[in-house]
Amino acid sequence: MKTIPSFSALIKQKFDYTDVYFQEVKTEKNICPEDLGKAFFTSDIPWVKKLFSLRNKLVAVFGLKGSDKKSKIMQQAEQSDFAVGERFGLFKVLDKKEKEIILGEDDKHLDFKVSLLYVQPVNKIYISTGVQYHNFFGRLYFFFVKPFHRLVVKSMLNSMATSFA
């Protein structure tokens, strides 16, 4: 699925690139945005940690924003209420609704937004990404990131769904 769901706050924005992944969650729990944020940032996938570490080293050469160490972010997420404006490495909390949290960042080459959304009664978690390019370097950067992005999002979504089971 590539189209932002109509029930997401991201539907109102224009993007050059979008993707959406979703997974059913086997839970009776009422999942709130803070739960989604905690599950997203505490996903402990070793290869993803290594990939983000490599990314941070590579983008520093081009003056792009890096991220804190994953362990620091995980610790922060465990204790957070995910207030608008709070930062988790590359991600800043931009908005929070009843069942959705919007994360993202604006940078000189591109802006990105990520929606973490829980939909009842179907018990599905959606991760939607929107990217707006500012220039050629934004397009070039995301050209190389896109294949990894897809793998990372699918892995994180699976980890999030498992954490709610």
Describe the structure.
The chain has helices spanning 33-41, 46-60, 70-78, 136-164, and strands spanning 17-24, 87-88, 91-96, 100-106, 110-119, 124-133. It has 165 residues and is α+β, with helices and mostly antiparallel strands. The relative contact order is 0.24. It contains four helices and six strands; from the N terminus they run E-H-H-H-E-E-E-E-E-H. It has a six-stranded antiparallel β-sheet, covered by helices on one side. The protein is globular, with a radius of gyration of 15 Å. The mean pLDDT is 86.
How large is the share of residues in beta strands? 25-35%
- Tell how many strands the DSSP assignment holds: 6
Model regions low in confidence, pLDDT < 50 over at least 5 residues: none
Q: What is the count of helical runs?
A: 4
The helix/strand order is EHHHEEEEEH
Q: Structural class of the helices, strands and pairings?
A: alpha+beta
Strand order in the sheet with the most strands: 1-6-5-4-3-2
